Amino acid sequence: MEFKLSQEIEIKEGKFVITSIEPTPQGSANIRFRNLKDGRKWIRGQSILSNMIKSFEKEQIEKERKKEEKRKSRRKEKFLRQLKEAEIVDPYIGEGSVRDQKIQYYRSLSYLAKNAEIDAYIAYKVREWFDEKYFLIKNKYPEGRGYYPHDEDVNKWSSELRIKFNLPDGKTTDDVVFGPDVGLVLGGVGYDFYINSNNLCWYLLSLGFDLGKKHNIEEIKSHIPDIYIKYFEEGLGGN
Predict the structure, then answer these.
(1) Cβ atoms 91, 180 nearer than 8 A
(2) What Å distances lie between residue 41 and 16, 18, 20, 203, CA to CA?
(3) Pairwise CA distance, residues 127 & 121, whole Å
(4) Element (H, E) at 120
(5) 147: closest CA among 132, 136, 165, 131?
(6) pLDDT at residue number 152
(7) Which positions ≥6 away from 183 have C-beta within 8 Å?
(8) Which secondary structure element, helix H or strand E, spans residue 199, and what is its range?
(9) Tell me, what DSSP letter sits at residue 98?
(10) HSE of 67, CA atoms in CB hemisphere, 13 A
């Protein structure tokens, strides 16, 4: 590392300014520097001072990394708490008359877990926001199948998340529910139906679903209330 007179440097002990550079017979130099806060004078060999600066920089980078991890963890906790408060997981609140709808709902989630594909079409202007939100949930950045960011010249202003899926043999639209405000759209090539719902897709991602078709069944099951697990498993079996 090269140094010059009046250069300001920072090490663990504080901020300093170089006051003198004294060449040595070995082709290096002794560096004299003064603490900007208390005026104390230091002297170190060039290579030693270089290592002190590099060590301090590494420590700072590591501190920032840990701070960023904590910030991301807090943001993720807040996001998941908001999802829970919104009760997206179970749109049929209460017992009694809605129990059959709850059973049907968890069976319907299993149909998605088996064969649904989740696609995200992201406007250029919100791509950074989308990627960060996805990272908070999945602890990785989105890529590959299901992740379709638009180029800058495409006139889109938001993200659009879509679920594509097929019904099991013998099932009809009367057999699936995803909430009173979620409707099915007749599908196209390869899929029976679409669901256009950003809220539902974000919640599914937090459950263990992913963009594309690879969904973590065991993680999804871990989020389902115990009394409804058997209905989810029935759906996985196609019953």
Answers:
(1) yes
(2) 9, 10, 11, 59
(3) 9
(4) strand 117-122
(5) 131
(6) 83
(7) 195
(8) helix 198-207
(9) G
(10) 6
Contact 59, 68 (CB under 8 A): no
Q: From edge to edge, which strands make up the β-sheet containing 8-11?
A: 8-11, 14-23, 29-35, 41-45
Please report, for residues 59, 138, 139, the alpha-carbon distance to residue 200 in angstroms, rounded to integers and kept in the order given.
41, 16, 19
Joined together, the tokens standing for residue 49 give 């001072």
Q: In which residue are the tokens 């599914």 written?
A: 204
d(CA 112, CA 219): 14
- Give the pLDDT of residue 87: 46
Q: Are 180 and 88 in contact (CB under 8 A)?
A: no
Cα 187 to Cα 13: distance, rounded to the nearest angstrom: 65
The helix (H) or strand (E) run that includes residue 45 is: strand 41-45
Exposure class string for 147-168: b at 16+ Cβ within 10 A, else e: bebbeeeeeeeebebbbbbbbb
Q: Minimal CA–CA distance to 122: which of 147, 144, 141?
A: 147
| Residue 94 zone, left/alpha/beta (φ > 0; ψ -120 to 50; rest) | left
Question: What tokens were used for 37?
Answer: 């806060």
Structure tokens at 26: 């070995």
Residue 224 in tokens: 């389902």
pLDDT computed for residue 144 by the predictor: 92
- CA nearest neighbour of 184 among 198, 171, 197: 197
Segments of the chain scoring below 70 in pLDDT: 79-98, 238-239
- Please name the residue that has the structure tokens 């701070």: 67
> To 10 degrees, the CA torsion angle through 88, 80, 206, 186?
30
Residue 180 has which token pair? 């009173």
